[in-house]
Amino acid sequence: MTQFSFSSLVSGNLQRISLVTVGAIAFALGSCTAPSATSEADSTDTAASEDVLQVVTTFLPITQFTNAVAGDRAEVVQLLPTNTGVHDYQATPGDAQAIANADVLIQNGLEIEFFLDDMIDNAGNAELVIIDSSEGLDVLAFADEHDDHGHGEKEEHDDHGHAEEKEHDHEEEHAHGDEHDHEEEHAHGDEHDHEEEHAHGDEHDHAEGEAHAEGEEHGDDHDHHGHAHGEYDPHVWLDPKLAIEQVENIRDGLIAADPEGEAEYTANAEAFIAELEALDAEITEKLAPFEGQTFVVFHDFAGYFAESYGLESETLVGIPEDSPSPEDVKRVMETVKAEGLKTVLTEPQVGGESFDAIASDLDISVSVFDPLETGDAEAVQPEYYLTIMRQNADNLAASFGADQAWLPIWVSQSAAPQQVGLRF
After folding, report:
1. Which of 7, 72, 93, 273 is deepest in the core (most CB within 10 A)?
2. What does the pLDDT look like over 354-383, one tens digit per residue?
3. CA separation for the pair 30, 323 (Å, rounded)
4. Would you say the CATH fold of 264-399 matches that of 2-243?
5. Other beta carbons within 10 Å of 79
6. C-alpha separations of 51 from 73, 74, 130, 261, 266 in Å
7. Which residues, in sequence order, are CB contacts of 356 under 8 Å at separation 6+?
8. CATH tag, 264-399
């Protein structure tokens, strides 16, 4: 299996937190269950014509960007069900079969698809081309511990995909050579592989070949459903500027896999990039009056978006499955009061009840910032990304007190027909 690399190509007194608030949050999270769905990959047509490029994507933003570039030239199938996020995904035999039948696999990278390595090995597809859409992007490092929900400075990543040749032993791909002591994990030498770049602290020094095993313990870091955040924030798609770079990586990867489609891929990418540039300009203008202010979201996904538009983000929890502590609730309530926020921003599938309790105590509202990890069947289309990002910007401006025409979370929106803001 070939891995193509494109880096060379291209305030006052705080009111006392009520025990009712914390209790309500704990109860709400305790009753949460992951949505169940059948993977779209299970219905992949294994008899598809060999002259049509077979492309498997991982989850929504990657599918949206790939559909924008591929157009009608490739058959694009998403691995995850559209209503299931990467934190809740559980692989099926049909998913491995989809990878076995594919010509190209396109991922976000930065370890958010923590489940892929084992699936790729099980698929046994020696001809599979893997496109890492976040290759070469300037990325944000998470803080050493997620307790403060902070980010470090951006660092450029030129090689955080799989090893160049699939023939390399799986353990060689993830080996931590003696010359790469764990304390040197932030260095970016060419010889660093995916696991070295994204290694956790000393307490996460896994044996060779174990880093992505499903269900493994990941030390003291957050580990839910076999998942832990990597060292770097993977939510690059939420910054339209970085989304443009992802589209360019996808374009270049598809051209490398299907040279005869170069003109079509190039034209499609150019058209969508123009739409992303227009989106970025609109959001910049809308949020410029609030530069330097802090908004509140449920989990730690908005770092790139905030940095791109001169804002700060505060979160209740690090990842969606975390249970907020009384200290987390206090910190968020302090931020809301200090910033004079009118709303806190929940997500379509998580955080609603938690923020309802906080909002009730503070006499504010709950709105939505959709990280675009889940949606309905139509969410795979590129236009969905553009629509939801505009809605996010509207809702964010309204949280700062702007006079925006935004829809409350209990209203079903035409471009996002799922009941946003509700738990499933």
Report:
1. 273
2. 788 899 999 999 999 999 999 999 999 999
3. 8
4. yes
5. 31
6. 10, 9, 19, 12, 20
7. 24, 366
8. 3.40.50.1980
Picking from 116-120, 136-140, 192-196, 348-352, which range would have the lowest pLDDT averaged per residue? 192-196
Domain ranges, ordered by start, for the chain:
2-243, 264-399
Expressed in angstroms, the distance from the first to the final Cα of the chain is: 38
Helix, strand, coil in percent for the chain, rounding step 5? 40, 10, 50
Alpha-carbon span 249 to 260, nearest angstrom: 17
Q: Which helix (H) or strand (E) holds 345?
A: strand 343-346
- Asked if 347 contacts 83 with a C-beta cutoff of 8 angstroms, the reply is no
d(CA 367, CA 376): 19
This prediction's pTM: 0.69
Per-residue pLDDT tens over the stretch 392-403:
999 999 999 876
Rounded to whole angstroms, the Cα distance separating 247 from 269 reads 7
Q: What is the torsion angle, in degrees rounded to the nearest 10, for the CA atoms of residue 151, residue 154, residue 156 and residue 157?
A: 10
> Could you tell me which of 299, 331, 392 has the C-alpha nearest to residue 22?
331
Residue 73, CA atoms < 13 Å, CB-side half-sphere: 21
374 touches 88 (CB < 8 A): no
Residue 424 and residue 350: Cα distance in Å, rounded?
A: 8
Segment 46-94, tens digit of pLDDT: 444 567 999 999 999 999 999 999 999 999 999 999 999 898 899 998 9
Distance of alpha carbon 141 from the chain centroid: 14
In three-state secondary structure terms, 129 is strand
What are the C-alpha distances in Å from 58 to residues 89, 124, 299?
A: 11, 18, 21
CB-CB neighbours of 210 under 10 Å? 11
Second CATH level (architecture) for the domain 2-243: 3-Layer(aba) Sandwich (3.40)
